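ok trying this again, last paste got cut off
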Amino acid sequence: MNPQEHSEHAEEVPSRLRKGIYVLPNLFTLAALFGGFYAIVMAMNNQYEASAIGVFAAMVLDSLDGRVARMTNTQSAFGAQMDSLADMVSFGAAPALISYEWALKDLGRWGWFAAFVYCACAALRLARFNVNTSVVDKRFFQGLPSPAAAALVMGFVWLVTVLDINKADMGWLIFALSLYAGLTMVSNVPFYSFKDFRMRKSVPFAVIVSIALIIAVINIHPPIVLFSLFMAYGFSGYAVYAWRRAKGLPTSVISTSTDEPDEKGLH
């Protein structure tokens, strides 16, 4: 192999996912999986506040595993597959089963219909993400990301539980919310991904102050603030879609960019 061929080969290797299994990033993935499993178990014991917290904890851990893998240069094909399977449990099966156990079961067949539609759409969303990763504009998600959809459903369960509202009166609301979250996951509506925000890039001091203020506001009343934030994000995609359409810009995020996204989280 001549030096030029060796150089070209060396440049190709980092772009490929390794076939090994690395402990550190997969620990975060397993912890996220445990969050979803814990949420289901808590729902079976009628502890819905703890159940919602488990799903939100899984969201945080899911956002970290990809970053840890890149920081430690331990990305692998195994880790990518493990991440998708964990997401299906934590953000697909868990919210569907918990919402069904919480109030949807009182609606009879309509209840399990909504729960299944959400679960099936989450699976389709994750599969499409894995296939379209390299052809989607990295600034946007194609459809509502599954962690945000889970936060929308579980945030509502958490809020109603904390406010001590009779869940029997919430059946049709969680029905509508589950269908909205599920169908929006498999839509082509563009949702901003925040992937162009570089953690290693220097930022103005005001940005750090803003982050501190956001954390403080969330701490005032986590269920209300988090549900409000994810409700706003859950509808933001349609606002972006309408704005791009009004401006005559492409509404599809497919083939807008061929750059592979830097982030693997928030599927």
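PB: full thing came through this time. The chain has nine helices and two strands.
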